[in-house]
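The protein record quoted in full:
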Amino acid sequence: MSISTKREQGRERILDAARTIFAEAGLEGASLRAIAARAGYTPAALYFHFDSREAIYAALLQASLLELRADVGAAAQGGPRQAFRAGALALFDFYAARPQDLALGLYLGPGSPAPRGLGAEIDPELNAALIDALAPIRTAAAGFCDDPDALLAQAFAQAVGLLVLAETRRLRLFSQAARGLMEAMLAALLEARP
C-alpha cells in the first residue's frame, strides 16, 4: 500500500468518525479528543491530516456540497422553468434523504440553533461551494425571471424550512407532507412569474 493511499484511508477514517461525533454533539460540542478516539487515533495524530476541528467539519461539508452540486446539476435539465423546478426538487430530495448533511450545512447540533461559522478563512470557501451547488437552479431561473437570485433564495428557504419542519416533526401538526408542500410552493413561485 502506498503512503498516499494509507494517508487517504486515515483521512477517511477521521472523517467517518467526525461525522458521527458532529451528529451527536454538534460543532460546539465535538472535540478533537472524541473524534480521535472514535477514529482510533491520538488527538495529536489528527493534526497530520487536519489543522483543526473546524477544518474537519469543513471537509465534511465540502464533500456534501460537491455531492449536492452533482445531484442538482443532473436534475436541472430541460427548459428554464422545468430545470428550475427539477433542480429545486433535487435540492429538497438530497437533504430529505440526508438530514445529517442538512444539519451539517446549517451548523445545527444539540443546543446550537444559530450557526457561528467556521472562521474567516473557511467560511467564504464554503459559501462559494454552496452557491456553486445551487448554480444550476439560478441559471434556470435567469431564463425566465429578472431577479434569479431572489427566486433561488425563495426556493432554497422554502426547501430548508420544510425540511427542518419535517425533521422536527412539526409538519405533523398540519397533517402535511414536506415534499408535497415543496411541489406546491414551487408551482406557486413559477405561476407568479409569467
User: Anything to note?
Assistant: The chain has two domains: 1-50, 58-191. Residues 61 and 135 are 17 Å apart (CA to CA). The longest helix spans residues 3-29.
